[in-house]
Design a protein that fits this description.
With about 260 residues, the protein is of the alpha+beta class. It folds into 2 domains: about 15-190, OB fold (Dihydrolipoamide Acetyltransferase, E2P), CATH 2.40.50.140; about 190-255. About 35% of the residues lie in helices and about 30% in strands. The chain is built from 3 helices and 12 strands, in the order E-H-E-E-E-E-E-E-E-E-E-E-E-H-H. Strands 5-6-7-12-11 form a 5-stranded mixed beta barrel. The chain has a 3-stranded antiparallel beta sheet with strand order 2-3-4. The protein has a 3-stranded antiparallel beta sheet with strand order 8-9-10, with no helix packed on it. A hairpin with a 5-residue loop joins strand 6 (about 75-80) and strand 7. The radius of gyration is 32 Å and the shape is elongated. One of its GO terms (cellular component) is nucleus.
């Protein structure tokens, strides 16, 4: 029985090409099961870049029902989201600790402006736009991706409450359409597109080099001006000193008469 790993029908492009990807700078609409299916690659593991086929993904958007709310500690609160795709995912809310939170400076006590966590003796509540989240509340969450104990975990950046079943159905339809139209097909670059990318990079490098050269020339001219000014001041000081000495000699000579 063969154990040969099948060769992918796509290639991973170099990182300098990622800006041309339809997913790299987008909130990629994913089902929760697809979040867990995102793949890491050794060359990008430390950059928190994941891949769906060869699409680079940094930001995701998920829609699902809150099935658990956990008060972990003063730094984190965890929402568990279930969208019916066969998996759940933890969404981490980063809280401002009591020593850093100032209600005058910050609109909420978390890093997400419209999310507030109320935690005191006998009371624990998470609100979105001043509306409490309950078990069963459906939310639309935009997040970055991380991992905790070898499992994908999301970190909340933006969130809205989905208020009607129509909104929920529309959101899931958008996710399905995004997967079909974008993610299901490998990302490809034509030779012309690749040349445009490399030409753009070279153009930026040339511009940066020109700016650096101009900056160096300005610095050199500035140093030369300071040097010339210093030399003029030194020459003037020598001239003044010479005059003072002459005047002193004349005064001394006059006092001997």
């Amino acid at each position: 029985m063969s154990t040969t790993t099948p060769v992918p029908s796509y290639r991973l492009f170099p990182a300098y090409c990622f800006e041309a990807s339809p997913t790299y700078n987008a909130w990629v609409k994913l089902f929760v099961a697809d979040v867990h299916a995102l793949r890491s690659e050794p060359d990008f593991a430390t950059q928190k870049i994941y891949f769906f086929l060869n699409h680079p993904v940094r930001f995701v958007c998920v829609v699902g029902a809150v099935v658990a709310i956990d008060d972990i500690n003063t730094k984190y609160t965890i929402l568990t989201i279930d969208d019916g795709s066969g998996a759940t995912v933890e969404v981490k809310i980063v809280r401002l600790t009591p020593d850093t939170y100032n209600p005058v400076e910050f609109p909420s006590n978390t890093v997400v402006d419209n999310v507030h966590v109320v935690s005191r003796l006998g009371v624990f509540e998470v609100t979105v736009n001043h509306q409490p989240l309950d078990i069963g509340t459906v939310i639309k969450a935009k997040c970055t991706i991380s991992e905790f104990r070898s499992q994908k975990q999301l970190e909340l950046k933006r969130v809205w409450i989905v208020r009607t079943t129509n909104e929920e159905a529309e959101a899931w339809a958008e996710t399905a359409a995004w997967k079909k139209q974008v993610l299901s097909t490998p990302w490809r670059l034509t030779s012309r597109e690749h040349k445009q990318i490399t030409d753009g990079i070279n153009s930026k490098k040339q511009k940066a080099q020109q700016e650096e050269q101009l900056r160096a020339e300005r610095d050199f001219k500035s140093k030369e001006r300071r040097k010339a000014r210093g030399e003029r001041m030194a020459a003037r000081e020598i001239k003044l000193e010479s005059r003072r000495r002459k005047e002193e000699l004349m005064m001394n000579a006059g006092s001997l008469i």
